[in-house]
Amino acid sequence: MTDGIVQKTARVTAATIAAYTGLSRATVTHVLNGRGAEQRIRQDTQERVLEAARVLGYRPNASARALHTGRTGNVALIQSLKGAYLPERLLLGLTEALGENNMYLTLAEVPDAVLDDRAYLPKVLREHTADGLIINRIVGIPPSFTEAVTTLNTPVIFLNVNRPFDTVFPDDFNGGKLAAQYLVELGHKHILYVGSSASVEYHYSHVDRQEGYRAAMEEAGLPSTVFLLPPHPETDEQVLKDARVQIVRSYLEAAAPRPTAIVAYELAEAMAVLHAVNQMQIRLPQDLSLVMFHHQLDHRFCIPITTLCNGMHSVGREAVNLLLDKIGSPGTSFPSRVVPIQLLEGATSGPVPNLVR
Description:
By secondary structure, the chain is α/β, with parallel strands linked by helices. The chain has helices at about 15-20, 25-30, 45-55, 60-70, 90-100, 110-115, 120-130, 145-150, 170-185, 205-220, 235-240, 245-255, 265-280, 310-330, and strands at about 75-80, 105-110, 130-135, 155-160, 165-170, 190-195, 225-230, 260-265, 290-295, 305-310, 335-340, 340-345. α10 links the parallel β6 and β7 (about 225-230).
């Protein structure tokens, strides 16, 4: 530094920062590698090193760090294309938590046929040089895949599947209970659960939300009724022929007594209900209350639907925390972490109509 002006070199190293600050290279290296507290380096000294690194434009050499520590700072997210589910809140939670730990994420979207090849996961570890894997494969997981994962030396966790170990998933059973309890507290006695049949395989949440709803209704001494729509359309042709709105309308027109509240499995079921009641000139929430499960309060349809939020942001952050625990303790299986469901009040729920109290 000359007369207060920083003279930047082509490449700033730990030695550069040591000369700039007057500290030892070992002290600077410990701080830059995140070991300042471990080495009992004073907080003001750590801050001095980090500020110098910022001023000088220091950028860590990932290859050198990997050789020195045996870690790359990278986590690979393996995204199955079957039942693909990667909402922005989930991705944000993952990247935020990794950034706070000076790590980054790479994403690989992979057909299930490729995932089931026993050579694939070791290959992705080599190509992505990852310290750990996060598997986002929510349906259709064969035992052979789980067995292959357990043989890896690299830490692996799963997202959004109900497993006892090494997984992070929302508490959908208690979410189903919360949905029904909320409507019961508003005075509703005729509460319908609307789900969908699965074209291939159910995700665990189809069962857990429904069973949570049934449990809450039973605890309240009220009858539970589950109505399943046909499977979601998957092609443009199926969308054009989708009759689910008419199916909901026909059900509501014939129901006696007609439900005063509906719990919808997800956004698709809620939309079928919303369009059907609009055709029938049923007002929300004056004549009918509607709640649904989703990853956020949705405003796209001009009326925010009261939502049981499945906490995808928290799922992402907790997945990183769990993976870091596994990286720190290789070979250890950790109990799965269950993220609570949160009720987000929208504009589609209210007290039971006076006419049916």
